[in-house]
Amino acid sequence: MKTGLLLLLFFFSTNVAYEYNIPVKTTDRSSINNIELTEIGEFGLLRKERPGIPAHFHTGIDIKRPNRNYHSESIYPISEGIVISKRQDGPYAQLIIEHENEHKFWTVYEHIAGIEVNLYDYVSPETPIARFMNENELNRYGWQFDHFHFEILKVQPIKLKRDHSKPERLFASYTLACYTIDDLNKYFYNPLEFLDKRLN
To answer: pLDDT tens-digit profile of 151-166?
Structure first.
């Protein structure tokens, strides 16, 4: 009886069809053709050195808002998962979600606002988790943040010590630690390639 139950559980766990969608609301969330990037938003682009930040490779993609909604344009997870880190400090606000689909991976959503989820919440591709910055926020922080930064990690994010000023920020990405192509490929998937292989 136990063996039969284990086999049944194994069958269902290995034959689950996981849902994937692009992280913005468009008429068709099943196509990467509906993701528009900023001019310098491509994955793997070499970013120039700037004060306090060495030259590094861009570890994700910078996604433009899909329309002219500067009030409440939602951002969504690409698949079901659990929120494992939440950072709410102005233009660097960030969510990290852990996914256990065909294998474990992590998604990062940064330069976001209006976070709607809590630490350890279960989310699906239909769950609005945050939004693009609105016009007031862009006027305050700068219009260079008129996008959100999206990453897909191959390895667990960096575990952080608890910080009382950011008590829900439990993990960090390798965003500024990719100085070679080998670093980039060790830690990150190309988000467009990753999604293209999995979208229906």
So the answer is: 999 999 999 998 888 8
Strand ranges, E, within the chain: 46-47, 56-57, 61-63, 74-75, 81-87, 94-100, 104-110, 122-123, 130-131, 148-153, 158-159, 171-172, 188-189
Between strands 148-153 and 158-159, the pairing is unpaired
| Tokens read off for 115 | 């976070």
* pTM recorded for the entire structure: 0.90
Domains in the chain (CATH in brackets) are: 2-198 (2.70.70.10)
Q: Per residue in 124-144, is it b (16+ CB within 10 Å) or e — as a string?
A: ebebbbbbbbbeebbeebeee
Q: How many residues in the chain?
A: 200
The more confidently predicted of residues 103 and 84 is 84
Assess whether pLDDT exceeds 60 at residue 116. yes
Half-sphere exposure of 75 (CA within 13 A, CB side): 28
Six-digit token pair at 121? Answer: 């919440």
